[in-house]
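#structure-requests
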Amino acid sequence: MKRISLILALSIFVSYITYAQTASTIIYSKDLNTAIAQSNKKNTPILLYVNNSKEESSSKMNNLTFRLSKVINFVNDNFTSVNVDVADISNNSVLKEYRISVLPTYIILDSKGAEISRFSGYSEAYNFIEKTKVVMDPDNSAKVKKEAFDNDHSFKNYCDYAEVLHRELKYDQLTDFVESYLYAFMPVDKYSEQSWKYLKIAMRKANSRIFYAVLSDKYIANSYIGKSSLDKVIAQSIRNYALEYVSGKGKDPIQIAGPIVSWLAIVDDNSASSHYINIAFKLFNQRNMQFQGAKESAYEGIASYLSAEKVASLEEADRNYMIKFFKSIEGMPEQYITAFETGLNDYFKKNI
């Protein structure tokens, strides 16, 4: 009797250990083909988790969110899962195959391997579960929402499809969509809080059609969005544009670029760094003036105007931007960059 009791106790203990081990981690299939076979047996969708374990966002998912029991249980109960770590270069083909530009990305597939929906980026436990519940529903897929909008160009359908693109971090597609259809709506809709979520992403590029459209409509947009919120997005877009331009990546002629950057001192007039950018941008474009020594004179002017002491005294975010701006200027002579860095070091030694 004692022997039987001992065996029973050991059996219960082993079962408990096995369950604990199973419940302490997400169970992954070895590859997608195996997952498809298992998905058909279990009658569950597939969670394709594409990540790079060497990058911060993916590492946080692996070591924080995916270590929590409620997330583990949710994933194991509802999915057949596959973990594709592109830190292993042999897995990189999945990035092209599934058109992935942001990591980590979570793709929900049906039992045949066809995509239902997806979302991307680091998420804490509650957000991950809620987002996953949404994308598990085929009625929330990009295809379904796009078809609904194509059949009825209502503001609701516009926002529903824009939300899918936003959730999936497909910002280029979102920008194209907003640029194509936002004009059709009345200001109360297109500048509403709901629409602003998508509009401010579409305005990332300061030379885009939607950026110009909002600028031309700014008085009305201010009354709905709020002047400070709108000015903040406009200023950030112009800052990004100016940085890209002086680094040699901007392709617009100065007749277009100049007026865009000049707006910065208008919408962000309380920021010293915005005025610094505006002046430095004008000096930068003097490189191409038709007189001897124009280029050298332009670089010398920028280095003199954007002194290390002036830049170092800015608030941290503005200071970091201006340091990047100065160092990114195409063709800036090395001696000016070295002097700028030395000046920054000297300033901080004196003021820390």
